């Protein structure tokens, strides 16, 4: 009995030593214990502010190499995370996860104006502004107003940021070297992206992807109201207005409204005589 008790005591001590050994790397700044020397090194950058991983395209620095890899996708356009339901691609797994909810979760929040349904109540509130024409987000510099906060943030970059990379042909400036290189192809005529099905070439990879869908017949954008599919998200949005009866473009001369901007412009010529 005594021997068993001694054995359990020894085993308990060994477990305690293992635990101590496992967390033997302690931060001198905040006292946090880490499992390895490498983990401690990574953690210390929180206190020192060290960011050893720098983007070669725009100069932005990061504490972790994984964060740099994720950031580089902004420049390369790489979207390695693809939805198995509709084919849409994303730069990181968290965005894909949020997108997957559109396939798996029921849309409980319904618009009482057009019948469109939404996953989250905040999405419905944002959508309702298309009916009320409310634009609560205003630019403090020029006074332009927006229905969405992210639209205002993107707009304010026009005022806040000055491009560091200048085109020597037309003196236009860009925020990143990648954007400058893409722009320069307008002047050089360079089209490095060749279609794998025909001889057509493109200056941008995104234009090539859109073109190749003509050959593959791929239509990744599906209408949530019917089974119709589209090659481009813009075409899907235009189509869905048939179901929602949404007509966001209003004539400034009369009360007529239109689903598409070109239809409004064509109509307004009746009033202007152009």
From TrEMBL:
GO terms for biological process: regulation of gene expression. One of its GO terms (cellular component) is nucleus. PROSITE patterns: ZINC_FINGER_C2H2_1, ZINC_FINGER_C2H2_2. SMART domains: ZnF_C2H2. It is found in: Nucleus. It holds the Pfam family zf-C2H2. Keywords: DNA-binding, Metal-binding, Nucleus, Repeat, Transcription, Transcription regulation, Zinc, Zinc-finger. GO terms for molecular function: DNA binding; zinc ion binding. Its main location: nucleus. May be involved in transcriptional regulation. Belongs to the krueppel C2H2-type zinc-finger protein family. This is Uncharacterized protein zgc:158517.
């Amino acid at each position: 009995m005594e021997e068993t008790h001694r054995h359990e005591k020894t085993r308990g001590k060994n477990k305690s030593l293992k635990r101590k050994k496992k967390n033997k790397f302690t931060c001198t700044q905040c006292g946090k214990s880490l499992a390895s020397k490498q983990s401690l090194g990574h953690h210390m950058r929180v206190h020192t502010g060290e960011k050893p991983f720098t983007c070669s395209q725009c100069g932005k620095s990061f504490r972790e190499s994984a964060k740099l890899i994720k950031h580089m996708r902004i420049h390369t356009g790489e979207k390695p995370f693809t939805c198995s339901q509709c084919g849409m691609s994303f730069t990181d797994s968290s965005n894909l996860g949020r997108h997957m909810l559109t396939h798996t979760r029921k849309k409980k929040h319904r618009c009482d104006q057009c019948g469109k349904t939404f996953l989250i109540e905040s999405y419905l509130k944002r959508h309702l502004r298309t009916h009320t024409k409310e634009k609560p987000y205003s630019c403090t510099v020029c006074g332009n107003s927006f229905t969405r906060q992210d639209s205002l943030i993107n707009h304010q970059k026009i005022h806040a940021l000055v491009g560091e990379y200048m085109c020597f042909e037309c003196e236009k400036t860009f925020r990143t070297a990648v954007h400058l290189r893409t722009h320069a192809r307008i002047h050089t005529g360079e089209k490095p992206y060749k279609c794998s099905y025909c001889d057509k070439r493109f200056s941008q990879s995104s234009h090539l992807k859109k073109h190749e869908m003509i050959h593959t017949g791929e239509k990744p954008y599906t209408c949530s109201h019917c089974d119709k599919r589209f090659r481009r998200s813009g075409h899907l949005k235009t189509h869905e207005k048939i179901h929602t009866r949404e007509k966001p473009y209003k004539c400034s001369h009369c009360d007529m409204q239109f689903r598409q901007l070109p239809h409004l412009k064509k109509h307004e010529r009746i009033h202007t005589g152009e």
